[in-house]
Design goal:
The chain has 15 helices and 13 strands. By secondary structure, it is α/β, with parallel strands linked by helices. The chain has two domains: about 130 residues, Rossmann fold, CATH 3.40.50; about 270 residues, Rossmann fold, CATH 3.40.50.150. About 40% of the residues are buried. The structure holds S-adenosylmethionine. The site of S-adenosylmethionine has 20 residues, from α7.
Length: about 425
């Protein structure tokens, strides 16, 4: 059978988020993955057997449950047999707990070289897995320049990104300050959890000096950001912690932080521009809801480029820019906004409102309009530059980067024209626990 796939991922359904993370990282590195249910076509069993035959590497997310799961055992047996038949499938066990394996699973995997994901963070283990896989597939050299980024994380600690986010906050303050005021109106002793807090400046700017706010906990996966935030803003009421929202022990770790700060629950969970970088919003929302007080609410700011428009856009240049953004994985998922209200409903939130549904240049001052242009368009250019460095052979990124550099000034002039209107699909939502 032709090896038209690179990696088959076998997992027990409770480990789906781990499998999602693995696939997300591998696919960012152009590794062709197959995993159920996403890739099942037609009959389930036939589809699985064929996929295993077509893959070069078989990854099993190994824990007590998968080790006893008849499905996973069938799959690993299939890969094992293929290997005996010299069809050369490399089996890589990716061990995510410390429990003993079932005898059957032990039989299939004991001679294989394991990746240990128990004694270190999931991100690091997935990084190792990815390195191993691209080596086996012989694409290591081509991908040498790839900078690591997991799930949809990006280098938010770079000076460029910090400056951009800072400008963004200033411009967006006009968009959302009334909402922040509404969130704390008439309240006292408010505790806030800021999810994906970046360098901390946004939450500190909006809530740092509010008397009504007693506690702010920021959680953020990028350690450099956390250090920066603590160095610059931490005090008896504000603290930042390194924590990955997508990690399997997220809830346990957050609970520990809360215990250490005598926080029973949060009155406000604040999520600004984070959901577009997260794959499983629904699961995350369900988890976050548990940490809210009974009267508590979640505030979400996110993006939906489907709501963007630029007028006039005679040559469709602005449209082409959104298209680039959509095609570029590091810009996040650009239709994230439209999913949020539904995911809030599904995860048990009540009294959900879409507070804002787009932000536009009408009546903006010259300075704000300039900043608006910079924050949206400069990041697309920079993301393209990064992708060109990562994938020097990629014709698409090269072509679009050259085009954008070429036309950038022209775009800016059009944007700054007094009769030009740009609407950005920036959305914001509120949902209450009860
Ligand atoms: C676009 S920035 C937004 C920062 C800030 N909330 C704001 O609106 O200015 C997204 C932030 O989420 C962080 N992030 C992404 N994935 C994360 C994850 N799985 N767990 C925690 N933080 C994450 C990134 O490192 C980054 O700092």
């Amino acid at each position: 059978m032709e090896k038209s796939l690179d990696v088959f991922i076998s997992y027990e359904h409770e480990s789906k988020s781990i499998a999602d993370n693995i696939v997300s990282v591998l696919e960012q590195h152009k590794v062709r993955c197959w995993y159920a249910p996403r890739d099942v076509i037609g009959d389930y069993a036939t589809s699985i057997v064929e996929a295993i035959e077509r893959c070069r590497i078989f990854v099993i997310v190994l824990n007590e449950r998968s080790s006893n799961s008849p499905h996973c055992l069938n799959e690993v047996e299939q890969a094992f047999k293929a290997n005996i038949n010299q069809e050369a499938i490399t089996i890589i066990p990716f061990k995510v707990d410390n429990k003993d394996l079932s005898k059957a699973m032990d039989y299939y995997v004991k001679r294989q070289h394991w990746i240990d994901a128990c004694s270190r963070t999931l991100d690091v283990a997935i990084f190792d897995l990815k390195e191993k896989i691209i080596k086996i597939l012989g694409i290591a050299e081509k991908k040498e320049v790839v900078r690591e980024r997991i799930d949809n994380k990006y280098d938010s600690a770079s000076d460029f990104e910090k400056t951009r986010l800072n400008n963004q906050q200033k411009v967006l303050k006009k968009f959302d300050i009334d909402i922040y005021n509404r969130l704390i109106e008439g309240k006292k002793n408010v505790s806030v959890l800021d999810v994906g807090s970046g360098d901390g400046s946004l939450i500190v700017d909006r809530f740092g000096h509010c008397e009504a706010v007693d506690t702010i906990i920021g959680i953020e996966t990028n350690v450099e950001n956390v250090i920066f935030a603590n160095d610059n803003y931490s005090n008896e009421k504000i603290n930042f912690f390194a924590l990955d929202l997508t990690s399997s022990d997220f809830e346990i770790k957050l609970k520990k932080i809360m215990n250490a700060h005598n926080i029973e629950n949060f009155d406000i969970i604040h999520c600004s521009m984070i959901f577009l970088h997260i794959r499983n919003n629904y699961h995350l929302l369900k988890k976050l809801r548990k940490f809210l007080s009974n009267e508590g609410c979640i505030y979400i700011k996110d993006i939906d480029d489907g709501l963007n428009f630029a007028y006039p856009d005679i040559n469709h240049d602005f449209e082409r820019v959104y298209e680039i953004c959509r095609n570029n994985v590091i810009s996040g998922y650009r239709y994230s906004g439209r999913e949020i209200a539904t995911n809030l409903i599904l995860s048990g939130f009540k009294n959900i409102e879409i507070l804002k549904n787009g932000y536009n240049t009408i009546n903006m001052s010259f300075e704000d309009k300039q900043s608006f242009f910079d924050i949206y368009f400069s990041f697309i250019k920079d993301d393209l530059r990064i992708q060109c460095e990562r994938y020097p052979d990629d014709e698409y990124y090269r072509k679009e980067y050259a085009w954008l550099c070429d036309i950038y000034e022209d775009l800016e002039r059009k944007f700054m024209n007094h009769d030009f209107v740009f609407n950005l699909g920036l959305m914001s939502f509120i949902g209450f626990k009860n």
